Each structure stands twice: as structure tokens, then as C-alpha cells.
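Hi V.,

You were right to ask for the full record rather than a summary. Here it is.
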Amino acid sequence: MNSTRHMEEKNLLLRVKGLKKWFPVKSSLGRTTGYVKAINSVSFDLFEGETFGLVGESGCGKSTTGRSILRLIEPTEGEITYRGKNLLKLKGNELRSIRQEMQMVFQDPHSSLDPKKRIGYSIEEPMIIHGVGTKEQRMRRVFELLRKVGFSEEYYYRFPHELSGGQRQRVGLARALALDPKLIVCDEPVSALDVSIQSQVINLLQEIQAELKLSYLFVAHDLSVVRHIADRVGVMYLGQLVEQAPVEQLFHSPQHPYTKSLLSAVPIPNPKVKRERILLQGDVPSPLHPPSGCVFHPRCPFAIEKCRSVIPQSMEVTQGHHVQCHLYS
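Predicted structure:
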């Protein structure tokens, strides 16, 4: 497990502030009738060499956040600052250059690879696109990356269908490393893998992070995986970041009612230890018509009148532990 390091010892790599992504809903006549508020004012920092985990239920906006940061999806509003540069203001060659330092490992290792291309070409392709090196230099680099993720050179000539899911995900990681990035967005990289394979990929991610001093934005819904790999964790609900804290602090002392409910569902590997299960009422509201005030108030057992009308602001309850809840205001 990664130890939590002090903030003052880290250098800020990425700052996300007030990030929004609203998808327009069109009528049959092409008119905009509303917006799906997939991300609604998300803010957090990511420091060099650390892993920031994003957790929450399916559809809460985790993956959209990761893709918006890399501008695979254009954000609606907000600021994304990478090493002091606002990514949303970059265009052309300047954006192309900065993108070499920011890569992504996708959730589905099968669909993220071209089935008609050999593994070697899939890893080499980012270098071709960015004009890096000669053909011989790129081939040597691919062989080096294959060894780094635990493959022999013969895998250069294989096709994706000849590999297992875990092997394909290793290829995805090798491809993400091809341009020597500083930041990798891992979009649920182990959720499609067997549990035994998950641990191998997670360990590989940590080994490579330590060796290359990478920063990860790790998107996941499996809290046990996040606890193992993350330094700090952000909990998302309906497009908003309701709590963020150092990983052990979040697991030992959750503050937001939604975080407490999530953690109460995590099994304890001891049949003699009982945990009080916090069951939430109702379903997750639609991001097309999110609730007024605190988005969690329709399901919150502690909601007060203020929660129904006033949006809570993020507050620091202890050092590095922020929660967006009226109970602490």
C-alpha cells in the first residue's frame, strides 16, 4: 500500500478547478431541450508521483472526468492546469506537444486495440503519430516496453486475439508508456479482469510508477483496489466530488453520508466481525434533472431543510480532508 506523503513535499502536477461537462439533449427537431450534467463543478489537485483515486457508483462521472482532463471530451466549463499551463487554452502544436506527457489506459483491453494490427505496431503507433525516432529506434523502444511489462520480444508479432485479457491490458500500459508520459489516466484498468490477474496488473502499475515517477489518476468502483494503490481518494456522486482525503483517513474516518454508505458495503474477510450496513433509500437521480441543493439529499438519512435548497461548499474538516456537506458547515 502506498504511504500517504505530506502535501508540502510534493510538486503540483495537475489542478482541476470547477470542471463541468454537460451533454446537450436534442429533440427530434434538433433543438436543445436540456443538459445531462455528467460533471458539475469538480475540483482536485494531483501531485507528482502520487495516485489520486476517483471512486463512486456507475454513471457518477468518473470516466468523463478522466477523459475531459485529457480533452478526449471537450469540457463545458472550468480550468485544467497542467504544470502551470491551462490545457483548455492550448491549441495546435502546443496541445499536441503537451499530450505526449498525458496518456490513458482504457477499461476494455480488447476494444482499445486494433484487431487487425500486430501488438508491436499498436505500441509503436503513438511514436509514429508524434514523429518520434526512426523506424529502428521505435522498434528498439517497443522491445524495451514489452520487457518492461513482462513480455518477451516474440509478442511484437502477435495479434490481440492471441492474448488473454490481462496480457492485452499490459499491452495497453506499454502503449501508454511509449511517449514517456508524466501522467496516466487509468480508466478502470482492472475491472474487466479476473481477480488473480487484477493483482498482477495493479502490482505492475505500482512498480512502473516507482521506477518512472509517474502520476496516476485512477478511476475505479472497487474500493479495495483503490485502497491498495491510491495515496488520496475522491468520492464522486452524481457528477460532484463530495469528499476527498488521504486514503487511510478516508477509510478509517469517512465524513460524508454517501462515503459511509459505500464503505459499509465493503465485505470484511472475517466472519466474526460484523459491520453495520447503511442502506440508502431510493435510486440515484437522473443527471438530466439533478436535485436542487445538495444532490445527495433525497437519499441522505441526515438531510436537513437547508440541504434541499442550498448547494454545500467543500470544507476542510481536518488537514487534507475535504467534505461537501452541510453537516460540517
